Q: What sequence folds into this?
């Protein structure tokens, strides 16, 4: 892979001409356009055949792809579902959009406007631009995902969000980078807000790491949408559940649909176990 291919790959296939010209001259760039290996998106920007269309839309709208769209491109958890608009951070100076554009929502961080040097914002700028485009629990899940993948450190979040309203700053206290999926983050956040004391990602002897442990005995396992099923994962999970039951644990396994569409029913089932105080019963000696 040569330097231009690497640059295109790192920037989702949409790159400023100035960045390309660090590695090739103008005649070579024109040759790439003639042969179809590159195309001009707007003045000063080029894309390859694999360019992400969301990034192209953002550049044409006078900014950079940001918020939920950019986070998703970086592999960070975002709420699933088709989005009717592209999330774009407006540029400054000549790239500042003069008119609203159909299908584009302009989002940006509070108190600053970083330059739009790339077609897709960095994970941190995208996260800072997302506070008004998701719910509190979704923002916590986004931050959890970034913490888990090492895009940001826990202490950095306080500093990055220092200019934001108190309702946003306070969400940092709910973040935990141990969460391994967005749905796990949502369940932890909802249960904690309901007053349930729990521990995330606990290693249980003879069973392994479980998503959430409530009291002594109640294990909550949360399936994400990325979980593709199949016989092997299905059998593995059932073996874990069997071993847990054999050791007197209570296992509640929540599907993606339970979390996203039937949460009230799932919460009531969990709360019934807690109200009966079954989660606090001592485990038998082994």
A:
């Amino acid at each position: 892979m040569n330097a231009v291919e690497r640059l295109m790959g790192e920037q989702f296939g949409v790159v400023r001409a100035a960045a390309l010209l660090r590695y090739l001259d103008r005649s070579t760039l024109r040759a790439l356009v003639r042969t179809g290996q590159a195309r001009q998106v707007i003045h000063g920007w080029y894309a390859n055949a694999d360019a992400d269309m969301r990034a192209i839309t953002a550049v044409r709208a006078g900014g950079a792809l940001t918020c939920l769209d950019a986070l998703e491109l970086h592999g960070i958890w975002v709420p699933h579902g088709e989005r009717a608009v592209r999330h774009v951070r407006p540029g400054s100076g000549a790239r500042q959009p003069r008119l609203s554009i159909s299908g584009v929502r302009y989002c940006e961080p509070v108190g600053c406007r970083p330059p739009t040097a790339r077609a897709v914002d960095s994970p941190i700028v995208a996260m800072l631009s997302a506070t008004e485009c998701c719910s509190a629990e979704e923002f916590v899940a986004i931050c959890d995902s970034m913490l888990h993948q090492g895009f940001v450190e826990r202490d950095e979040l306080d500093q990055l969000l220092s200019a934001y309203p108190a309702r946003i700053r306070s969400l940092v206290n709910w973040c935990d980078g141990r969460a391994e999926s967005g749905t796990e983050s949502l369940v932890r956040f909802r249960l904690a807000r309901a007053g349930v004391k729990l521990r995330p990602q606990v290693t249980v002897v003879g069973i392994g790491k479980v998503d959430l442990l409530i009291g002594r005995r109640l294990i909550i396992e949360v399936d994400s949408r990325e979980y593709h099923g199949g016989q092997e994962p299905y059998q593995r999970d059932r073996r874990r559940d069997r071993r847990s039951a054999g050791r007197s644990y209570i296992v509640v396994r929540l599907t993606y649909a339970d979390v996203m569409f039937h949460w009230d029913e799932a919460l009531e089932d969990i709360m019934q176990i807690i109200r009966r105080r079954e989660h606090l019963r001592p485990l038998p000696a082994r």
Remarks:
- The first strand starts at residue 14 and ends at 16.
